[in-house]
Design a protein that fits this description.
It is built from 17 helices and no strands. It has 407 residues and is mainly alpha-helical. α5 runs antiparallel to α9.
């Protein structure tokens, strides 16, 4: 009976945190999905559109590192609720924009809201999910994010094509408001652990000891892992569909389907990766094999030597293999987090994700403006190959040094 009660508790927390995470990822691509409408409406270049996404992820990255400290000091639940509310507000602001500056302001606000999710989510999972199911919690967390990525362009383009882009954004604002209401209703399940007193957090080391985890080299290697992999992901999120239209002559709807195939296959990969990661101690090897395969597939897409239907399949395969690496990635980072510093470590490390997603749209937008659609997939492949180097470094450090476990 006790095991059944614990299973129910774990499933409830994992489901609620996953729903919140999926909402944040839904908002990652609300601007990218509406590029075909925003570009002519505001007479923007691809680089200018990419800059909107850069603002979103730059603000999110800086805010994420700060949010980790706020989570550790004041608790994850309140921080998570505030982030969801900001996402809904940002969609309302974007829907009423009549200038590029107003789009920038909406992107800024959305970035503020997005910044809280990883430190808050992972802190709640580590505090409220039993150790035996933590790998599966990480798996569901990643899957929900990919589902958000997959649904967002389908939903927004469907609504925009039948009404207009403003209505699509207004419709998108309903999601975080509904999720917030559900989380508040279930707030007891997400209650945080009592916040450590400043003296306890400092552990007698003075004010600077709250930052002592920054001296761990492996934390910055994890940051580099996220930075590099996120640049590749930004290419897929922002301009893969547009590049497929140019390279393969497919319709925008078909190219969007290829992107959706990538995200859904990635979710399937994460599901399997949860079981694979839970039964393995060599998480770096899983990551290396996955990203090596993805890089090769991206270069095949860049060469445009396959028919359009097979390009959709290859996009799905890239998503599948990178998805498999997700839980192993999170388990590696968990090992880098000292006790009582989960929010701070995940905040700093995952700010690398936002940093890469901020840089990527600028890089790949410039390639599209220069009429080099194949360069988008070449760049994706190169950055995915570079991820392997960081995985080797993180794996060797965790095995040799023996990092402390999280609380």
């Amino acid at each position: 009976m006790k095991d059944t009660s614990l299973l129910r508790q774990d499933a409830r927390v994992i489901g609620l945190v996953g729903l919140a995470h999926g909402t944040s990822h839904f908002y990652h691509v609300i601007l990218a999905a509406l590029i075909p409408w925003l570009k002519p409406e505001f007479h923007l270049s691809y680089a200018e559109l990419g800059l909107l996404m850069t603002v979103f992820f730059t603000v999110s990255g800086v805010g994420q590192a700060m949010a980790g400290f706020v989570v550790d000091r004041y608790g994850a639940r309140t921080v998570l609720f505030s982030g969801i509310a900001l996402l809904g507000l940002s969609a309302l602001m974007l829907s009423s924009a009549h200038s590029y500056a107003q789009l920038m302001l909406g992107a800024f606000l959305a970035g503020c809201g997005n910044s809280v999710f990883h430190p808050a989510d992972y802190t709640l999972l580590n505090q409220r999910v039993s150790k035996a199911r933590l790998a599966h919690g990480f798996s569901v967390h990643g899957i929900s994010g990919n589902i958000g990525w997959a649904i967002s362009p389908l939903f927004l383009t469907f609504v925009a094509a039948r009404t207009d882009w403003r209505t699509a954004l207004l419709s998108a604002a309903v999601l975080p408001l509904a999720v917030l209401a559900l989380l508040v209703w279930n707030r007891h399940a997400l209650r945080p652990e009592p916040v450590a007193a400043p003296a306890a957090m400092a552990a007698g080391g003075g004010q600077g000891s709250a930052f002592s985890f920054l001296r761990l080299q492996v934390v910055w290697m994890c940051f580099a892992f996220f930075l590099i992999s996120a640049v590749a992901l930004a290419g897929i999120q922002s301009f893969a569909a547009t590049s497929l239209v140019s390279l393969y002559g497919m319709s925008l709807a078909w190219a969007t389907t290829a992107y959706t195939a990538y995200m859904l296959a990635s979710a399937v990969g994460m599901l399997y990766g949860g079981f694979l990661g839970a039964g393995s101690r060599h998480h770096d090897r899983i990551i290396m094999l996955a990203f090596g395969t993805a890089a090769l597939l991206a270069l095949v897409l860049a060469a445009a030597v396959v028919p359009a239907w097979l390009a959709v399949v290859l996009m799905g395969l890239i998503g599948l293999v990178t998805g498999i690496s997700g839980p192993s990635r999170d388990l590696l980072i968990r090992g880098a987090a000292p006790a009582n510093a989960t929010g701070r470590v995940f905040g700093v490390v995952y700010s690398g994700l936002d940093s890469g997603l901020a840089l990527g749209p600028l890089l790949f937008g410039a390639l599209m403006d220069a009429n080099h659609p194949s360069g988008v997939f070449i760049g994706i492949g190169v950055f995915q190959a570079l991820v392997i180097l960081t995985a080797i470094g993180v794996g060797s450090k965790t095995r040799v040094v023996g990092l402390p476990k999280t609380a």
